[in-house]
Write a structure and sequence with these properties.
Elements lengths: L1 E3 L4 E3 L6 E3 L54 H18 L3 H20 L3 H16 L8 H16 L5 H8 L3 H14 L9 H12 L3 H16 L8 H15 L6 H8 L3 H14 L3
Antiparallel strand pairs: 1-2, 2-3
């Protein structure tokens, strides 16, 4: 048998008998540049994801009341299909864990838009929340609180600059409750969290204030020198980044107040002044 990719026909090479006039295209729907991307773009529906309560593996009965040939179903068949859809939907939400995951991941999808998080962070947060749920850490606590802690832990792990205040405000819980749940997850799940770098926080603050690239590069040099001298150890990364930016603004004659930088960084003006004095004294600026 020979398949013609242009006409879409499959025919016999000896006699020319056409077996199929229109064969289905089973390859990827879009062009792929690497072989590793081919599996992700094949015609098998949405890819599996930990951020979906059933991981995208559940079956769905279509809403169209038509048969395979496109003809409308009879009244009895329509009633039977409606009944099957109802039971199919109920079977997916039969257990309490499934209902918990469904509600949590709806909130996670909202957080993704509010905090502009990447898919990698969302997948990591879903993985952490599933582990917490399997160890019964959600019992007796709010779903939003544990989910927010999982999102913050995922941001720390992927090194995405999001503070406790950012996550708490986005999901509308207290910062104190978020930090409490985060410590619980780290201890119970035995997670090793990387230290937040003040360099990654600097771009976020500079973008909010609207500083130039020249100011950011100078502040980056200050932070690198501070890291090499181990001045940043034990200090708040946001405070260090904000102080380095303020020093850079002063050196470059950029008219900006400590209050503006403090509001963008989510720290107090006292913190900036204290870190400013430390950097100025230690680096001999």
């Amino acid at each position: 048998m020979v398949t013609d990719a242009v006409t879409g026909e499959r025919f016999c090479r000896n006699c020319g008998f056409v077996v199929d006039e229109q064969i289905a295209e089973l390859g990827p729907e879009r062009n792929v540049s690497k072989d590793s991307d081919r599996d992700d773009k094949s015609r098998v529906g949405i890819p599996t994801s930990l951020a979906i309560h059933d991981m995208g593996l559940a079956t769905v009965i279509g809403a169209a009341n038509k048969d395979a040939t496109g003809k409308p179903l009879s009244a009895q068949a329509k009633h039977e299909m409606k009944r099957l859809r109802t039971w199919d939907n109920r079977s997916q939400m039969s257990e309490q864990m499934d209902r918990n995951l469904r509600y949590a991941f709806i909130q996670l999808d909202k957080l993704k838009d509010k905090l502009t998080l990447s898919d990698a962070v969302i997948e990591k947060a879903a993985y952490i929340y599933r582990k917490a749920l399997s160890k019964s850490l959600v019992r007796g606590r709010s779903i939003e609180g544990v989910l927010a802690a999982a999102v913050y832990a995922a941001c720390r792990d992927v090194e995405t600059p999001r503070t406790l205040g950012d996550v708490a405000t986005a999901i509308n819980i207290k910062r104190k409750d978020l930090s409490k749940n985060y410590r619980l997850l780290v201890n119970e799940l035995e997670m090793k969290m990387p230290v937040v770098s003040s360099i990654t926080c600097m771009s976020k603050i500079a973008s909010k204030v609207g500083l130039s690239e020249k100011v950011k590069r100078h502040a980056l040099g200050i932070l690198k020198e501070a890291n090499d001298s181990r001045i940043t150890a034990g200090k708040d990364p946001m405070g260090m980044a904000a102080s380095a930016l303020y020093i850079s603004c002063v050196k470059m004659d950029v008219d900006i107040s400590q209050k503006d930088i403090a509001m963008a960084a989510g720290v107090t003006e006292v913190t900036i002044r204290n870190r400013y004095k430390d950097l100025k004294k230690s680096l001999h600026i």
